[in-house]
Automatic annotation (TrEMBL):
<dbReference type="GO" id="GO:0003697">
    <property type="term" value="F:single-stranded DNA binding"/>
</dbReference>
<dbReference type="GO" id="GO:0031297">
    <property type="term" value="P:replication fork processing"/>
</dbReference>
<dbReference type="InterPro" id="IPR036397">
    <property type="entry name" value="RNaseH_sf"/>
</dbReference>
<dbReference type="GO" id="GO:0044774">
    <property type="term" value="P:mitotic DNA integrity checkpoint signaling"/>
</dbReference>
<dbReference type="GO" id="GO:0003690">
    <property type="term" value="F:double-stranded DNA binding"/>
</dbReference>
<dbReference type="InterPro" id="IPR052709">
    <property type="entry name" value="Transposase-MT_Hybrid"/>
</dbReference>
<dbReference type="GO" id="GO:0000729">
    <property type="term" value="P:DNA double-strand break processing"/>
</dbReference>
<dbReference type="GO" id="GO:0042800">
    <property type="term" value="F:histone H3K4 methyltransferase activity"/>
</dbReference>
<dbReference type="GO" id="GO:0044547">
    <property type="term" value="F:DNA topoisomerase binding"/>
</dbReference>
<dbReference type="GO" id="GO:0005634">
    <property type="term" value="C:nucleus"/>
</dbReference>
<dbReference type="GO" id="GO:0006303">
    <property type="term" value="P:double-strand break repair via nonhomologous end joining"/>
</dbReference>
<dbReference type="GO" id="GO:0000793">
    <property type="term" value="C:condensed chromosome"/>
</dbReference>
<dbReference type="GO" id="GO:0015074">
    <property type="term" value="P:DNA integration"/>
</dbReference>
<dbReference type="GO" id="GO:0046975">
    <property type="term" value="F:histone H3K36 methyltransferase activity"/>
</dbReference>
<protein>
    <submittedName>
        <fullName>Histone-lysine N-methyltransferase SETMAR</fullName>
    </submittedName>
</protein>
<dbReference type="GO" id="GO:0000014">
    <property type="term" value="F:single-stranded DNA endodeoxyribonuclease activity"/>
</dbReference>
<dbReference type="GO" id="GO:0035861">
    <property type="term" value="C:site of double-strand break"/>
</dbReference>
Length: 133
């Protein structure tokens, strides 16, 4: 608990000295219930990796911009050596995240909370309905 508090205090003090919140990039995922899911299909030969396609809407200019502060929580997929090295290789400043504190991720308590409140009780029939939200 003290690690969590001291890390939060250090980040708050740092933001007073050098504001970084407008330069922060963070990410997470949110599952949205959808009726009649269309599954994507791809074909690959035996022994070959599946073809990867970049997701539409990604903004590579943010990753190439100087001064970006990167934040992600510390769930298992984010703590692998390869995943931890990539932001450093890209020259991004990485914010620390207290262990076992998923409630401190900005996407969970701000962005996704608002999305969840808007989606409560909704039943989506077409994919366009979720994109419009």
């Amino acid at each position: 608990m003290t690690d969590r508090i001291s890390l939060c205090e250090a980040l708050a003090k740092r933001n007073e000295i050098d504001p970084f919140l407008k330069r922060m990039v963070t990410g997470d995922e949110k599952w949205v219930a959808y009726y009649n899911i269309v599954r994507k299909r791809s074909w690959s030969n035996c022994g070959e990796a599946a073809q990867t396609v970049a997701k539409p809407g990604l903004m590579p200019e943010l990753a190439n911009r100087r001064g970006v502060v990167f934040h992600q929580d510390n769930v298992r997929p984010h703590t692998s050596v390869v995943t931890r090295q990539k932001p450093w290789e890209l020259g991004l400043e990485v914010l620390m995240h207290p262990p076992y504190s998923p409630d401190l991720a900005p996407s969970d308590y701000h962005l996704f909370l608002a999305l969840q409140k808007q989606q409560n009780g909704a039943y989506l029939i077409q994919i366009g309905q979720s994109e419009a939200c």
